[in-house]
Design a protein that fits this description.
The protein has 185 residues and is of the alpha+beta class. It is 22% helix and 39% strand. The protein has three helices and eleven strands. Keywords: Plasmid.
Length: 185
């Protein structure tokens, strides 16, 4: 009788582990591998100097990947954020400056409020990785960027895997998949 609770816990753990393996599959892209949902499919693009393509989720969201020397560093492209004082100084120096792409804030505003993504850094498979996650689900970029995996004939080999404006399920699945990335050494 004393072993029944232990047996129940062991059965529960085994069932949960096997249940998770039924939901994911290993996707091998040659230059990297990732554990991903079974319903993700890959589309290969014809590129000359890198391994790049698109992964389509069950929700028809697109997740892009690029392993090569020219991989996008996933910098958020947004308007320039400047203070009222900085704007005044700019217009003194260049009265005809195009300010249509600027976000002008006062001293009580926080620049962080105008940035769409939260950025964290973490080691993935031994490499320093920049992980982006939108502050608001469905508005911004979710992904990972690794600046230097190795050096090739064209220079540093970089990597990214990302989606833009993903729905909640695709975003969660991508963030989970990122943690499983493996690069052959």
């Amino acid at each position: 009788m004393k072993n029944i609770p232990s047996f129940i816990v062991i059965v529960f753990i085994v069932l949960n582990c096997s249940d998770n393996s039924l939901k994911t599959k290993s996707m091998d892209f040659g230059s990297f591998k990732v554990q991903a949902p079974k319903d993700w499919s890959k589309l290969k693009m014809d590129v000359y100097d890198s391994n790049a393509g698109i992964i389509v989720t069950k929700n028809n969201d697109s997740i892009f990947y690029d392993y090569g020397p020219y991989s996008n560093p996933l910098e958020e492209t947004s308007a320039t954020i400047i203070s009222k004082e900085e704007l005044k100084e700019l217009l003194k120096v260049n009265p005809k400056a195009d300010t249509t792409e600027f976000i002008v804030i006062d001293e009580n505003s926080n620049r962080e409020d105008f940035i769409k993504s939260k950025i964290t850094y973490k080691k993935i498979d031994g490499y320093k990785a920049k992980i982006l996650e939108p502050k608001k689900i469905g508005k911004g970029m979710t992904g990972v960027y690794i600046d230097s995996l190795k050096t090739g004939s064209l220079g540093k080999i970089r990597f990214n895997l990302y989606g833009i404006n993903l729905n909640k399920e695709s975003q969660t699945e991508l963030l989970e998949a990122i943690q499983t990335l493996q690069f052959p050494k």
